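Z., the sequence and structure:
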Amino acid sequence: MKRFIVALAVGALLVAVAPARAVVAVAIPSAELLESFVPPVAATAKGGPFFLLNTDLGIEHSIVSVAKRPENKPWCDQFDVGQCPLFYAEAVVQGQSEVLGLENTASGRTYNYYCGVHQRMTGALHIL
């Protein structure tokens, strides 16, 4: 429990120093055990910005939307045909990765996503 509280404090501190007006999903230490990004539901404007901030030391995390898109983005090559995610953030071991592809989201909708490395680790993004 003590480690969990410290992890939340570290995650909160890093969110506080993120770029102004940036919305972040934080992967905190032991996030894959918690099976959730922090916060579990984030919100941003259509088109973003939205960032993955990985504070989980030595553990790689990414963001992959459950919703699919046509195969016309650079990241689509990493996925099977017909499985290209609507939005995507490249895996980082520690640091920040911008979520790409938010220009095709729709206002008023909530999109589920997961960690491409730890598929049980999930979150949701609401588009304002």
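The longest strand covers residues 36-44. The longest helix spans residues 2-16.

Let me know what you think.
H.
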